[in-house]
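We now fix the convention by which a protein and its fold are recorded. These numbers are not coordinates but entries in a learned vocabulary of local backbone shapes. A record is reproduced here so that you can trace the correspondence yourselves:
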Amino acid sequence: MPSLNTKPLQVFIVAIPETAGSALYGLKDVLMATGNIWQTLSRNGVETSPFAVSIVSHGLEQFFCGNNIPVLADEDYHQPRTQPDILILPEIWLGPDEPFTGRYPTLVQWIKQQYEAGVYIYSACSGAVMLAETGLLDECQATSHWGYQDLFRKHYPKVRFKPEPNLVIADSAGKIVTAGGTTSWHDLAIYIISKHVSPAEAVRIAQVYLLKWHDEGQLPYHSLLRNNRHSDHLVSECEDALKRHYKNSHAIQVTLDQANIPPRTLKRRFKNATGSTLIDYLQNVRIEAAKRQLEQTQLPVDEISIDIGYEDASFFRRLFKRRTGLSPSQYRRMFKPIIHSAEPDSMS
């Protein structure tokens, strides 16, 4: 823990109209409470303030961010009164097919300048899209919400996008770190506190705020079936066929027969339109069906395996873990309580 005489680290959190208020104010609140809230609640230890946290934007006039949440910036990035040590790009409201290209060019250039000046750059969730716009993630590994993997593939192909982890250190010096899904700002806050204050203080803050480190990564939350927009009507019919016949052990052949074009041609068109092979798509359909049964029924895993089209339950278990990061039993333990807690009987 820094001593009482240690100068607080200057933390800037970027806010624009697209910013998600929960991440913006959540990060500010947690970082400002570091070094003092546990000490106050436990009546133990010396209170400190290792972070001085400011919201930075395009001016100092109030504006409204996502869901009409008011924002009053502390700093104008055009003329900041202090130099940040840490710069955070929180989640922004951005559709999975909505490019960020060309927005806020002055801000994007300023972010690059901060990195060149030695500032630590951190992003949470879709804040990584803004970071990618700077070019600082080119040829680097990075993560964001899994729903943006197609956007990265299309608009930022130089970024080695990883939808699985909850946190990715992009550069060898550890100066750029990206965090995954919507509540990944929790993981990011824990990481920042651990790195810049102490691991012990990070644990204390996690305990106060009930923050959870998502060490399971994003795969358990990842929808394997996304509606990729394409104009190939035949491929769309094949997607529908695979969804209808996924329990059939000959689902691929049924789909090929229905298409009535050379198999090689269909496989090429399918991959070009969806980004998946036929077998990958079928496996994703089956795993999504298995997820629903694990969440909503008490059926044994072996019976679920047979029901979705896999006679070999051991193969199903290996495939399920490869696609979700968890075994079927682990997945059931993780998500079944969520389903049951929402049921009326559980409230009595």
